[in-house]
Recover the amino acids of this structure.
Protein backbone atom coordinates (compact mmCIF):
# COMPACT_ATOMS: atom_id res chain seq x y z
CA UNK A 1 0.00 0.00 0.00
CA UNK A 2 2.84 2.40 0.87
CA UNK A 3 4.58 1.56 -2.40
CA UNK A 4 1.36 2.24 -4.33
CA UNK A 5 0.87 5.55 -2.55
CA UNK A 6 4.39 6.66 -3.48
CA UNK A 7 3.79 5.63 -7.06
CA UNK A 8 0.61 7.72 -7.22
CA UNK A 9 2.53 10.71 -5.87
CA UNK A 10 5.14 10.43 -8.63
CA UNK A 11 2.79 10.14 -11.62
CA UNK A 12 -0.27 12.09 -12.67
CA UNK A 13 -1.13 9.26 -15.07
CA UNK A 14 -1.20 6.78 -12.20
CA UNK A 15 -3.52 9.04 -10.19
CA UNK A 16 -5.86 9.37 -13.17
CA UNK A 17 -6.00 5.58 -13.63
CA UNK A 18 -6.73 5.13 -9.93
CA UNK A 19 -9.56 7.65 -10.23
CA UNK A 20 -11.03 5.72 -13.16
CA UNK A 21 -10.96 2.47 -11.19
CA UNK A 22 -12.75 4.03 -8.22
CA UNK A 23 -15.41 5.58 -10.45
CA UNK A 24 -15.95 2.22 -12.17
CA UNK A 25 -17.45 0.96 -8.91
CA UNK A 26 -20.45 3.13 -9.74
CA UNK A 27 -21.81 3.69 -13.20
CA UNK A 28 -19.08 2.71 -15.65
CA UNK A 29 -20.18 5.01 -18.42
CA UNK A 30 -20.36 8.16 -16.27
CA UNK A 31 -17.08 7.26 -14.64
CA UNK A 32 -15.29 6.92 -17.99
CA UNK A 33 -16.76 10.20 -19.19
CA UNK A 34 -15.60 12.02 -16.04
CA UNK A 35 -12.10 10.60 -16.42
CA UNK A 36 -11.89 11.73 -20.04
CA UNK A 37 -13.01 15.19 -19.00
CA UNK A 38 -10.26 15.48 -16.42
CA UNK A 39 -7.67 14.28 -18.92
CA UNK A 40 -8.79 16.85 -21.50
CA UNK A 41 -8.65 19.66 -18.94
CA UNK A 42 -5.07 18.74 -18.07
CA UNK A 43 -4.20 18.51 -21.76
CA UNK A 44 -5.72 21.94 -22.43
CA UNK A 45 -3.65 23.62 -19.75
CA UNK A 46 -0.54 21.76 -20.87
CA UNK A 47 -1.11 22.94 -24.44
CA UNK A 48 -1.50 26.56 -23.30
CA UNK A 49 1.72 26.41 -21.28
CA UNK A 50 3.60 24.84 -24.22
CA UNK A 51 2.30 27.49 -26.62
CA UNK A 52 3.26 30.26 -24.19
CA UNK A 53 6.82 28.93 -24.13
CA UNK A 54 6.90 28.44 -27.91
CA UNK A 55 5.61 31.96 -28.66
CA UNK A 56 7.07 34.17 -25.94
CA UNK A 57 10.61 32.84 -25.54
CA UNK A 58 11.64 33.45 -29.22
CA UNK A 59 10.33 37.04 -29.08
CA UNK A 60 12.22 37.66 -25.83
CA UNK A 61 15.34 36.15 -27.39
CA UNK A 62 14.96 38.46 -30.41
CA UNK A 63 14.82 41.48 -28.09
CA UNK A 64 18.04 40.42 -26.36
CA UNK A 65 19.85 39.75 -29.63
CA UNK A 66 18.80 43.06 -31.24
CA UNK A 67 19.91 44.87 -28.09
CA UNK A 68 23.30 43.11 -28.10
CA UNK A 69 23.82 43.76 -31.85
CA UNK A 70 24.54 47.42 -31.14
CA UNK A 71 27.67 46.69 -29.07
CA UNK A 72 29.98 45.50 -31.90
CA UNK A 73 28.84 48.41 -34.10
CA UNK A 74 29.71 50.97 -31.41
CA UNK A 75 33.00 49.22 -30.67
CA UNK A 76 33.89 49.16 -34.36
CA UNK A 77 33.49 52.94 -34.60
CA UNK A 78 35.92 53.30 -31.71
CA UNK A 79 38.56 50.69 -32.60
CA UNK A 80 37.87 49.68 -36.26
CA UNK A 81 38.79 46.10 -35.38
CA UNK A 82 37.57 43.56 -38.00
CA UNK A 83 36.47 41.22 -35.20
CA UNK A 84 33.46 43.46 -34.53
CA UNK A 85 31.87 43.08 -38.00
CA UNK A 86 32.30 39.31 -37.63
CA UNK A 87 30.61 39.38 -34.23
CA UNK A 88 27.80 41.52 -35.60
CA UNK A 89 27.22 39.12 -38.50
CA UNK A 90 26.96 36.18 -36.11
CA UNK A 91 24.32 37.98 -34.06
CA UNK A 92 22.61 39.18 -37.25
CA UNK A 93 22.46 35.63 -38.65
CA UNK A 94 20.81 34.37 -35.47
CA UNK A 95 18.30 37.26 -35.55
CA UNK A 96 17.46 36.62 -39.21
CA UNK A 97 17.07 32.92 -38.49
CA UNK A 98 14.64 33.58 -35.64
CA UNK A 99 12.61 35.97 -37.79
CA UNK A 100 12.45 33.38 -40.59
CA UNK A 101 11.42 30.58 -38.24
CA UNK A 102 8.73 32.79 -36.77
CA UNK A 103 7.43 33.61 -40.26
CA UNK A 104 7.40 29.92 -41.30
CA UNK A 105 5.23 29.03 -38.34
CA UNK A 106 2.26 30.69 -40.02
CA UNK A 107 -0.89 30.93 -37.90
CA UNK A 108 -0.54 29.62 -34.35
CA UNK A 109 -2.40 26.50 -33.44
CA UNK A 110 -6.09 26.60 -32.62
CA UNK A 111 -6.83 27.13 -28.94
CA UNK A 112 -7.47 23.99 -26.89
CA UNK A 113 -11.06 22.84 -26.77
CA UNK A 114 -12.92 22.04 -23.55
CA UNK A 115 -14.82 18.86 -22.93
CA UNK A 116 -18.12 20.53 -23.81
CA UNK A 117 -18.89 23.22 -26.37
CA UNK A 118 -19.31 26.76 -25.07
CA UNK A 119 -22.32 28.83 -26.17
CA UNK A 120 -22.07 29.65 -29.86
CA UNK A 121 -22.16 33.43 -29.45
CA UNK A 122 -19.33 33.54 -26.92
CA UNK A 123 -17.16 31.32 -29.15
CA UNK A 124 -17.69 33.63 -32.13
CA UNK A 125 -16.74 36.69 -30.09
CA UNK A 126 -13.60 34.99 -28.72
CA UNK A 127 -12.57 33.74 -32.18
CA UNK A 128 -12.99 37.25 -33.61
CA UNK A 129 -10.89 38.70 -30.80
CA UNK A 130 -8.24 36.03 -31.28
CA UNK A 131 -8.13 36.55 -35.06
CA UNK A 132 -7.78 40.30 -34.56
CA UNK A 133 -4.89 39.77 -32.12
CA UNK A 134 -3.18 37.40 -34.57
CA UNK A 135 -3.46 39.95 -37.37
CA UNK A 136 -1.92 42.64 -35.18
CA UNK A 137 0.88 40.24 -34.16
CA UNK A 138 1.70 39.49 -37.81
CA UNK A 139 1.69 43.20 -38.64
CA UNK A 140 3.98 44.00 -35.71
CA UNK A 141 6.36 41.21 -36.70
CA UNK A 142 6.48 42.53 -40.27
CA UNK A 143 7.31 46.04 -39.02
CA UNK A 144 9.95 44.64 -36.65
CA UNK A 145 11.57 42.72 -39.53
CA UNK A 146 11.62 45.85 -41.70
CA UNK A 147 13.13 47.97 -38.89
CA UNK A 148 15.78 45.33 -38.18
CA UNK A 149 16.75 44.97 -41.84
CA UNK A 150 17.15 48.72 -42.14
CA UNK A 151 19.34 48.77 -39.00
CA UNK A 152 21.35 45.79 -40.30
CA UNK A 153 21.97 47.52 -43.64
CA UNK A 154 23.11 50.68 -41.83
CA UNK A 155 25.56 48.65 -39.74
CA UNK A 156 26.97 46.89 -42.78
CA UNK A 157 27.37 50.23 -44.49
CA UNK A 158 29.39 51.50 -41.51
CA UNK A 159 31.57 48.37 -41.65
CA UNK A 160 32.02 48.53 -45.42
CA UNK A 161 32.69 52.21 -46.18
CA UNK A 162 36.00 53.02 -44.50
CA UNK A 163 36.29 56.53 -45.93
CA UNK A 164 32.81 57.66 -44.95
CA UNK A 165 32.79 61.31 -43.78
CA UNK A 166 32.51 61.71 -40.05
CA UNK A 167 29.17 63.53 -40.26
CA UNK A 168 27.70 60.80 -42.42
CA UNK A 169 29.14 58.14 -40.10
CA UNK A 170 27.51 59.78 -37.07
CA UNK A 171 24.20 60.18 -38.88
CA UNK A 172 24.30 56.54 -39.99
CA UNK A 173 25.13 55.41 -36.45
CA UNK A 174 22.23 57.42 -35.05
CA UNK A 175 19.94 55.93 -37.68
CA UNK A 176 21.14 52.44 -36.72
CA UNK A 177 20.47 53.10 -33.03
CA UNK A 178 17.05 54.51 -33.84
CA UNK A 179 16.01 51.49 -35.91
CA UNK A 180 17.31 48.96 -33.38
CA UNK A 181 15.44 50.85 -30.65
CA UNK A 182 12.26 50.74 -32.71
CA UNK A 183 12.76 47.03 -33.30
CA UNK A 184 13.11 46.35 -29.56
CA UNK A 185 10.01 48.46 -28.79
CA UNK A 186 7.95 46.66 -31.44
CA UNK A 187 9.07 43.26 -30.17
CA UNK A 188 8.13 44.34 -26.66
CA UNK A 189 4.65 45.24 -27.84
CA UNK A 190 4.43 41.92 -29.69
CA UNK A 191 5.46 40.11 -26.50
CA UNK A 192 2.65 41.86 -24.61
CA UNK A 193 0.10 40.93 -27.30
CA UNK A 194 1.16 37.29 -27.26
CA UNK A 195 0.94 37.26 -23.48
CA UNK A 196 -2.56 38.74 -23.67
CA UNK A 197 -3.70 36.21 -26.27
CA UNK A 198 -2.34 33.28 -24.26
CA UNK A 199 -4.01 34.67 -21.15
CA UNK A 200 -7.36 34.93 -22.99
CA UNK A 201 -7.08 31.30 -24.10
CA UNK A 202 -6.22 30.40 -20.53
CA UNK A 203 -9.38 32.12 -19.30
CA UNK A 204 -11.51 30.31 -21.91
CA UNK A 205 -10.09 26.93 -20.91
CA UNK A 206 -10.54 27.66 -17.22
CA UNK A 207 -14.14 28.77 -17.74
CA UNK A 208 -14.89 25.60 -19.71
CA UNK A 209 -13.29 23.51 -17.01
CA UNK A 210 -15.39 25.08 -14.25
CA UNK A 211 -18.60 24.77 -16.25
CA UNK A 212 -18.00 21.16 -17.20
CA UNK A 213 -16.96 20.27 -13.69
CA UNK A 214 -20.27 21.54 -12.33
CA UNK A 215 -22.16 19.37 -14.88
CA UNK A 216 -20.13 16.30 -13.98
CA UNK A 217 -20.64 16.91 -10.27
CA UNK A 218 -24.37 17.24 -10.82
CA UNK A 219 -24.60 13.96 -12.75
CA UNK A 220 -22.51 12.13 -10.21
CA UNK A 221 -24.27 13.61 -7.18
CA UNK A 222 -25.28 10.98 -4.67
CA UNK A 223 -24.35 7.64 -6.25
CA UNK A 224 -20.93 8.93 -7.34
CA UNK A 225 -20.27 11.25 -4.36
CA UNK A 226 -16.97 9.60 -3.55
CA UNK A 227 -15.90 9.70 -7.19
CA UNK A 228 -16.81 13.41 -7.37
CA UNK A 229 -14.60 14.15 -4.39
CA UNK A 230 -11.70 12.24 -5.93
CA UNK A 231 -12.20 13.97 -9.28
CA UNK A 232 -12.28 17.38 -7.59
CA UNK A 233 -9.08 16.60 -5.71
CA UNK A 234 -7.37 15.52 -8.91
CA UNK A 235 -8.55 18.69 -10.64
CA UNK A 236 -7.12 20.85 -7.88
CA UNK A 237 -3.83 19.00 -8.15
CA UNK A 238 -3.70 20.18 -11.78
CA UNK A 239 -5.20 23.69 -11.57
CA UNK A 240 -3.21 25.00 -8.62
CA UNK A 241 0.23 24.11 -10.02
CA UNK A 242 -0.78 25.56 -13.38
CA UNK A 243 -1.78 28.76 -11.60
CA UNK A 244 1.72 28.90 -10.11
CA UNK A 245 3.17 28.37 -13.59
CA UNK A 246 0.96 31.14 -14.97
CA UNK A 247 2.18 33.56 -12.29
CA UNK A 248 5.77 32.61 -13.09
CA UNK A 249 5.18 33.26 -16.80
CA UNK A 250 3.73 36.69 -15.97
CA UNK A 251 6.75 37.51 -13.79
CA UNK A 252 9.14 36.41 -16.53
CA UNK A 253 7.27 38.61 -18.99
CA UNK A 254 8.04 41.65 -16.80
CA UNK A 255 11.71 40.69 -16.41
CA UNK A 256 11.41 39.38 -12.83
CA UNK A 257 13.32 36.09 -12.65
CA UNK A 258 14.03 36.19 -8.90
CA UNK A 259 11.15 34.02 -7.63
CA UNK A 260 11.18 30.37 -8.77
CA UNK A 261 8.09 28.24 -9.22
CA UNK A 262 7.57 26.53 -5.85
CA UNK A 263 6.13 23.12 -6.75
CA UNK A 264 7.44 20.34 -4.53
CA UNK A 265 6.14 17.53 -6.74
CA UNK A 266 7.67 14.59 -8.53
CA UNK A 267 5.08 14.21 -11.28
CA UNK A 268 4.86 15.75 -14.75
CA UNK A 269 3.85 19.17 -13.43
CA UNK A 270 6.82 19.09 -11.09
CA UNK A 271 9.06 18.35 -14.07
CA UNK A 272 7.46 21.23 -15.97
CA UNK A 273 8.04 23.56 -13.00
CA UNK A 274 11.69 22.47 -12.87
CA UNK A 275 12.02 23.26 -16.59
CA UNK A 276 10.40 26.66 -15.96
CA UNK A 277 12.89 27.40 -13.20
CA UNK A 278 15.85 26.42 -15.39
CA UNK A 279 14.55 28.70 -18.12
CA UNK A 280 14.22 31.56 -15.60
CA UNK A 281 17.78 31.06 -14.42
CA UNK A 282 19.08 31.08 -18.00
CA UNK A 283 17.11 34.24 -18.80
CA UNK A 284 18.35 35.94 -15.62
CA UNK A 285 21.98 35.14 -16.43
CA UNK A 286 21.53 36.37 -19.99
CA UNK A 287 19.88 39.57 -18.78
CA UNK A 288 22.64 40.26 -16.25
CA UNK A 289 25.34 39.55 -18.83
CA UNK A 290 23.79 41.89 -21.39
CA UNK A 291 23.41 44.64 -18.79
CA UNK A 292 27.05 44.22 -17.71
CA UNK A 293 28.36 44.28 -21.30
CA UNK A 294 26.36 47.40 -22.11
CA UNK A 295 28.09 49.31 -19.27
CA UNK A 296 31.63 47.86 -19.21
CA UNK A 297 34.64 47.70 -21.49
CA UNK A 298 35.28 44.08 -22.42
CA UNK A 299 39.08 44.36 -22.59
CA UNK A 300 39.84 46.15 -19.30
CA UNK A 301 36.69 45.42 -17.31
CA UNK A 302 36.33 49.13 -16.51
CA UNK A 303 33.04 51.00 -16.94
CA UNK A 304 32.63 52.36 -20.48
CA UNK A 305 31.73 55.85 -21.69
CA UNK A 306 28.00 55.32 -21.23
CA UNK A 307 28.44 54.20 -17.62
CA UNK A 308 30.92 57.01 -16.91
CA UNK A 309 28.49 59.67 -18.13
CA UNK A 310 25.84 58.15 -15.89
CA UNK A 311 28.24 58.34 -12.89
CA UNK A 312 29.04 62.00 -13.64
CA UNK A 313 25.35 62.91 -13.89
CA UNK A 314 24.65 61.21 -10.56
CA UNK A 315 27.61 62.96 -8.93
CA UNK A 316 26.47 66.33 -10.33
CA UNK A 317 23.07 65.88 -8.67
CA UNK A 318 24.72 64.86 -5.40
CA UNK A 319 27.22 67.73 -5.51
CA UNK A 320 24.50 70.31 -6.16
CA UNK A 321 22.37 68.96 -3.34
CA UNK A 322 25.13 68.85 -0.70
CA UNK A 323 27.35 71.67 -2.11
CA UNK A 324 30.35 69.39 -2.53
CA UNK A 325 33.13 69.53 -5.15
CA UNK A 326 34.30 66.68 -7.31
CA UNK A 327 37.21 66.22 -9.67
CA UNK A 328 37.38 64.93 -13.23
CA UNK A 329 40.55 63.51 -14.81
CA UNK A 330 40.87 62.57 -18.49
CA UNK A 331 44.01 60.59 -19.37
CA UNK A 332 45.50 59.55 -22.69
CA UNK A 333 48.37 57.14 -23.34
CA UNK A 334 51.29 58.88 -25.04
CA UNK A 335 52.32 57.64 -28.50
CA UNK A 336 49.93 54.71 -28.23
CA UNK A 337 49.58 54.40 -31.99
CA UNK A 338 53.33 53.84 -32.25
CA UNK A 339 53.08 51.08 -29.65
CA UNK A 340 50.49 49.29 -31.78
CA UNK A 341 52.41 49.86 -35.01
CA UNK A 342 55.79 48.74 -33.66
CA UNK A 343 54.84 46.01 -31.21
CA UNK A 344 51.40 44.85 -32.33
CA UNK A 345 47.88 45.17 -30.99
CA UNK A 346 48.41 42.44 -28.41
CA UNK A 347 51.07 44.58 -26.77
CA UNK A 348 48.74 47.55 -27.05
CA UNK A 349 46.07 45.56 -25.23
CA UNK A 350 48.57 44.73 -22.48
CA UNK A 351 49.34 48.42 -22.04
CA UNK A 352 45.64 49.27 -21.87
CA UNK A 353 45.12 46.58 -19.21
CA UNK A 354 48.16 47.89 -17.31
CA UNK A 355 46.76 51.42 -17.18
CA UNK A 356 43.38 50.05 -16.06
CA UNK A 357 45.10 48.14 -13.24
CA UNK A 358 47.08 51.24 -12.21
CA UNK A 359 43.86 53.27 -12.06
CA UNK A 360 42.19 50.68 -9.84
CA UNK A 361 45.15 50.62 -7.46
CA UNK A 362 45.80 54.38 -7.30
CA UNK A 363 42.29 55.65 -6.66
CA UNK A 364 39.88 55.19 -3.77
CA UNK A 365 37.08 52.67 -3.72
CA UNK A 366 34.53 55.49 -4.09
CA UNK A 367 36.27 56.87 -7.19
CA UNK A 368 35.10 55.85 -10.66
CA UNK A 369 37.79 54.97 -13.24
CA UNK A 370 36.53 54.26 -16.77
CA UNK A 371 37.73 53.65 -20.31
CA UNK A 372 36.13 56.16 -22.65
CA UNK A 373 37.40 54.48 -25.80
CA UNK A 374 40.69 53.73 -27.55
CA UNK A 375 43.57 54.92 -25.35
CA UNK A 376 41.44 57.49 -23.52
CA UNK A 377 40.54 56.91 -19.87
CA UNK A 378 38.83 58.99 -17.19
CA UNK A 379 38.50 59.11 -13.41
CA UNK A 380 35.66 60.68 -11.40
CA UNK A 381 36.71 61.78 -7.89
CA UNK A 382 33.73 62.49 -5.59
CA UNK A 383 34.37 65.04 -2.84
CA UNK A 384 37.75 66.03 -4.32
CA UNK A 385 38.61 69.58 -5.38
CA UNK A 386 40.91 70.74 -8.15
CA UNK A 387 44.18 70.50 -6.20
CA UNK A 388 43.33 67.04 -4.88
CA UNK A 389 42.36 65.80 -8.35
CA UNK A 390 45.61 67.22 -9.73
CA UNK A 391 47.53 65.26 -7.09
CA UNK A 392 45.77 62.02 -7.94
CA UNK A 393 46.48 62.53 -11.65
CA UNK A 394 50.14 63.22 -10.90
CA UNK A 395 50.36 60.05 -8.82
CA UNK A 396 48.90 58.02 -11.69
CA UNK A 397 51.30 59.63 -14.15
CA UNK A 398 54.33 58.86 -11.98
CA UNK A 399 53.18 55.27 -11.45
CA UNK A 400 52.78 54.68 -15.22
CA UNK A 401 56.20 56.20 -15.88
CA UNK A 402 57.72 53.55 -13.58
CA UNK A 403 55.77 50.59 -14.97
CA UNK A 404 57.54 48.34 -17.47
CA UNK A 405 55.90 46.01 -19.98
CA UNK A 406 58.26 43.08 -20.56
CA UNK A 407 58.43 42.18 -24.26
CA UNK A 408 61.32 39.74 -23.95
CA UNK A 409 64.26 41.60 -25.48
CA UNK A 410 62.58 44.98 -25.03
CA UNK A 411 61.33 46.66 -21.87
CA UNK A 412 58.51 49.01 -22.88
CA UNK A 413 57.53 52.08 -20.88
CA UNK A 414 54.45 54.04 -21.88
CA UNK A 415 53.62 57.35 -20.22
CA UNK A 416 50.33 59.18 -19.87
CA UNK A 417 49.18 62.75 -20.14
CA UNK A 418 46.24 64.05 -18.14
CA UNK A 419 43.86 66.97 -18.08
CA UNK A 420 42.08 67.89 -14.82
CA UNK A 421 38.87 69.81 -14.21
CA UNK A 422 36.68 70.21 -11.13
CA UNK A 423 33.13 71.07 -10.16
CA UNK A 424 32.11 73.83 -9.61
CA UNK A 425 35.31 75.61 -10.73
CA UNK A 426 34.95 74.69 -14.41
CA UNK A 427 31.23 74.34 -14.95
CA UNK A 428 28.00 72.92 -13.60
CA UNK A 429 27.31 70.34 -16.28
CA UNK A 430 28.91 67.27 -17.75
CA UNK A 431 29.65 68.84 -21.14
CA UNK A 432 31.60 71.91 -19.90
CA UNK A 433 33.51 69.82 -17.38
CA UNK A 434 34.57 67.26 -20.00
CA UNK A 435 35.40 70.05 -22.46
CA UNK A 436 37.63 71.78 -19.88
CA UNK A 437 39.41 68.53 -19.00
CA UNK A 438 39.86 67.69 -22.69
CA UNK A 439 41.33 71.13 -23.34
CA UNK A 440 43.76 70.70 -20.45
CA UNK A 441 44.74 67.27 -21.83
CA UNK A 442 45.44 68.87 -25.21
CA UNK A 443 47.71 71.43 -23.51
CA UNK A 444 49.56 68.59 -21.74
CA UNK A 445 50.09 66.84 -25.07
CA UNK A 446 51.30 70.03 -26.76
CA UNK A 447 53.81 70.70 -23.97
CA UNK A 448 55.64 67.43 -24.54
CA UNK A 449 53.37 64.77 -22.99
CA UNK A 450 53.98 62.82 -19.76
CA UNK A 451 52.53 65.62 -17.69
CA UNK A 452 49.41 66.77 -15.89
CA UNK A 453 47.68 70.08 -16.66
CA UNK A 454 44.59 71.40 -14.92
CA UNK A 455 42.02 73.57 -16.64
CA UNK A 456 41.99 77.33 -16.26
CA UNK A 457 39.17 78.78 -14.14
Amino acid sequence: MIRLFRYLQQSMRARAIATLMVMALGVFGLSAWAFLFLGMVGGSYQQIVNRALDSMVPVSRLQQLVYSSAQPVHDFLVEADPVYPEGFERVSAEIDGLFERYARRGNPEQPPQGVMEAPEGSLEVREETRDALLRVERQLMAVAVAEWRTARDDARRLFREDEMPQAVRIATMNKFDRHTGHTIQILGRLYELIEGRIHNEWVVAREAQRRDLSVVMGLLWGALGLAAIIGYSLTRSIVLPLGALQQAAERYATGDFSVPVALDRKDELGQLAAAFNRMGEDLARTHERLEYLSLHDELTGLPNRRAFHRYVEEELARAERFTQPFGLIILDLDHFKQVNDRHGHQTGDRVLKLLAEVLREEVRTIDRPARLGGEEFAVLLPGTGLSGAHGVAERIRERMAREVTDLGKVALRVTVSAGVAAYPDHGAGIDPLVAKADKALYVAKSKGRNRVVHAEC
Observations:
- Confidence is low (pLDDT under 50) at residues 107-125.
- The chain has two domains: 2-295, 305-454.
